[in-house]
Design goal:
Blueprint (H helix, E strand, L loop, with lengths): L1 H18 L24 H10 L13 H4 L8 E5 L5 E3 L17 H4 L7 E10 L2 E7 L13 H11 L6 E3 L11 H8 L5 H20 L3 H18 L15 H21 L2 H21 L19
Helix pairs in contact: 7-8, 8-9, 9-10
Length: 314
């Protein structure tokens, strides 16, 4: 009987194989989606020439190999970065300078990438408590490559690969208005834009009034003026038409300092009603403004560092 049952089972298997019953064909292997690569929108040869004339050496770019290497970066400072097609993270060896001049090597994204394509590009900043790493904050702001927000996944993956704990990673993405693409960009560029200078006049007025309000101990008015400066930098300035800038100069780093450091620090100082702290934060914001003006070739526009003085200084 066992022999008969075995023969029947064998016959059933053969029939099933012949008729295709009970035999599923293996699914074809899924092809992995191609990586998103971005090419530079700026002439690399010209950028490299300016960089080398200022004494820059592209081979000095920083390539961290592990978490220990990464944590050597100075906390609180912005560092320019790219992620190469090989998923290697490359950073500027020095923080983004407060003032960019013809004698200052500017570690732009194309310089870090050797003019080639990248998976991602932007800025990176560390936060620490003592020697302990507490946050790694990245963005995808690059007017040279204009990566999409999706590209930040490559940045986060590269950092995790270096050993950065996932819960310490943060994203702060404010794409440049220069990176608009498609029909929306055409419509936007066709529309009249407010000038950068007009927006900055508004900022100067609020800076001056804020200082005078502090001296008068009008705390709510002072706080309101500084809040409005922050909103102007976040909402209005990105849509304003940029003025002509010297070759290789970008104002993005200064805008980030204002929004991420200077405005919050001055707001906090005003809330404390601590005059020395307010004076210090006010002077720091003034330094950022004047450094930006110098980088843009407008050093003659001077923002006062003392409360109550006219802005700009005459």
């Amino acid at each position: 009987m066992r022999a008969v049952l075995g023969a029947l089972a064998l016959l059933g298997g053969l029939l099933g194989a012949t008729l295709g019953i009970g035999c599923e064909k293996p699914a074809p292997p899924r092809e992995e989606a191609p990586a998103l690569l971005f090419d530079t929108r700026r002439p690399y040869d010209r950028e490299l020439e300016v960089f080398k004339k200022a004494g820059g050496d592209p081979t000095q770019a920083f390539r961290p190999q592990n978490l220990g290497d990464l944590t050597k970066l100075e906390p609180g400072k912005l560092f320019t970065y790219v992620v190469l097609p090989t998923s290697v993270l490359v950073l500027s060896p020095i923080p983004t300078p407060a003032v960019v001049t013809s004698s200052t090597p500017s570690w732009t994204h194309p310089i870090l990438a050797g003019g080639g394509a990248v998976l991602a590009a932007g800025s990176l900043r560390l936060e620490k408590h003592g020697d302990k790493l507490t946050k790694v904050i990245v963005d995808g702001d690059s007017d040279a490559y204009c990566p999409t927000s999706e590209a930040l996944r490559s940045t986060l993956a590269a950092l995790v690969g270096l050993g950065v704990p996932r819960d310490l990673l943060r994203v702060d993405h404010r794409p440049s208005s220069d990176c608009l693409v498609g029909p929306a960009a055409a419509a936007s560029s066709a529309a009249a834009k407010v000038s950068f200078g007009t927006v900055m006049v508004s900022v100067a007025r609020r800076f001056e009034v804020g200082g005078k309000a502090v001296l008068a101990k009008r705390w709510e008015l002072a706080r309101y003026q500084i809040e409005e400066i922050g909103e102007t930098f976040t909402n209005e300035l990105p849509a304003a038409a940029l003025p002509p800038l010297p070759p290789g100069v970008s104002l993005t780093a200064f805008e980030k300092l204002m929004v991420g450091r200077d405005v919050p620090a001055l707001e906090k100082a005003i809330d404390s009603h601590d005059l020395p702290a307010i004076e210090k934060a006010y002077a720091t914001m003034s330094t950022t403004c004047n450094a930006c003006h110098t980088a843009a070739g407008k050093a003659f526009i001077e923002v006062p560092s003392k409360l109550g003085e006219t802005a700009p200084r005459l």
